[in-house]
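Page 47, continued from p. 46.
Same chain as before, 183 aa.
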Amino acid sequence: MNAEWLYHYFERETGPFRNLSDLSPEEAMAIHTQLKKRKDVFASKRSDDYYIIRRQLEEEARRRFIAKGGRPIRLRPHYMTLGECPWIKEWYREGQELNIHIREFDPKTVSFTYGDLFPTMRYKDGKPYREQIYTKEEIFKVIEQYGWPQEWNKDGSQGPEMYIEVQVWDDKPLLKHISQGER
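Result:
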C-alpha cells in the first residue's frame, strides 16, 4: 500500500470536496432527504439521524485532535483516505477519485482514524483503535501493528474498519486541485 497519497472519492456530478457539514442544518437535511430517495448511491442507506450524529462526531474528533496538538483551521473536516480504495467509487453513480501527495498537507491540519469516523467512534468491540483520533506520526504506528484495513477488509466482512480515513482540517491544500478543473 502506498502511504504517500491521500485519496478523495466523489460523485462526478457534484465535484470534489462538496461537504455536507459546510451547509446549514436545514440545507444538509434537505440534501440528506434527497439522497435517501436514491437507491443507486451508498448515502441512501444512511439513517435519518445521520447528519446530527455526524456533526457530533466531527466536533469530538476536532476536540481530540486539538488535545493532541492539532491545529485545525476548519470547523468541520473534509474526508479522504490514506492509500487507495478504488472500490469506494462504487458508492457513487459516477464515482471519481482525486489524489494528493501527503507532503502537501501540514501534519497539524490532518487527523486520522483507523476506519471511517462513524464506526471508529461508535462501534464498541474493545479494539484499541476505537474512539481514537491519530496524528500522522501515530497512524503509521497503528498501521504497522494492525495492517491496512483496505487490504485485509475491503468488503467489510471482518468488521467496520475498511480503510484509513483522513480528516482534512484546512482548505488550502485542496484549493489548487479543485481550481485546476479536477472535477
